[in-house]
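Backbone-to-sequence.
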């Protein structure tokens, strides 16, 4: 059973509480990042799949569809963390 509490706060105080909660969650996400080291500017295919919580097949499909941009170094494929963050938050890539 859910308990409902009615608090007397102003709309500005409610916005402030929500904003602080969202900031805290984003901060935890950027620190945690699903167990991937935060210092790495580039992620492998496996790390990218882990970052998004998807399969390697889905990573390949997203590359073919142009959702994420792969960078090849020899036979290895890497992805820029900054671009993945833009995709995650549905923001356009910056040139």
């Amino acid at each position: 059973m859910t308990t409902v509490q009615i608090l007397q706060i102003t709309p500005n105080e409610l916005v402030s509480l929500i904003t602080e909660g969202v900031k805290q969650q984003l901060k935890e996400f950027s620190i945690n990042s699903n167990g991937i080291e935060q210092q790495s500017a580039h992620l492998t295919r496996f790390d990218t799949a882990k970052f998004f919580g998807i399969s390697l097949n889905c990573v390949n499909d997203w590359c073919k569809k142009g959702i994420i941009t792969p960078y090849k170094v020899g036979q290895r494929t890497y992805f820029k963390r900054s671009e993945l963050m833009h995709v995650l938050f549905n923001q356009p890539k910056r040139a």
